[in-house]
Design brief:
Length: 147
């Protein structure tokens, strides 16, 4: 039986190939902010569909990452926003205002990516906040029905 010899250059090539793939995956996971600057705009048609949660003023919609079904108190989906305020201010905004919309706080985690979870008798709201460069905040609000 003949032995197959693999030259060291093949190992080096495979190492760099696999390493470059791992770095790309890591970088894409690192930044979950806006997907396309052109898709970020003021869009009252989407913001008017959502009436049962507070929306920070001067928020712009990231249309590539937004998917809303229904309207009023019956909407579900994901609302992705960019706001020119700092993440801590947006975090405090939701802490102060969600109870005004009959939501109860279920869980809060304040970190690099802050999360807030609220619930009422109809749905659960997941809020994810990520600070972007130049003191902007990416806001991702996901609404799912309660079982």
């Amino acid at each position: 039986m003949e032995k197959i010899q693999i030259k060291p250059i093949v190992f080096i090539f495979l190492f760099f190939l696999l390493n470059s793939c791992a770095v790309n995956v890591q970088q894409s996971d690192k930044r979950k902010g806006p997907s396309n600057i052109a898709s970020i705009e003021e869009d009252p048609s989407i913001l008017n569909k959502v009436s049962d949660i507070p929306i920070p003023s001067n928020s712009l919609v990231d249309k590539d990452k937004t998917f809303v079904i229904g309207s009023g108190e019956e909407w579900i989906g994901r609302l992705s926003l960019i706001n020119n305020d700092k993440k801590n201010n947006i975090f405090d905004f939701f802490l102060k205002n969600m109870s005004n919309y009959s939501y109860k706080k279920k869980n809060i985690k304040e970190n690099n990516v802050s999360t807030l979870i609220y619930e009422n008798n109809k749905k659960v709201i997941f809020i994810k906040l990520l600070e972007l460069k130049i003191e902007k905040t990416f806001i991702e609000i996901t609404a799912t029905p309660v079982n």
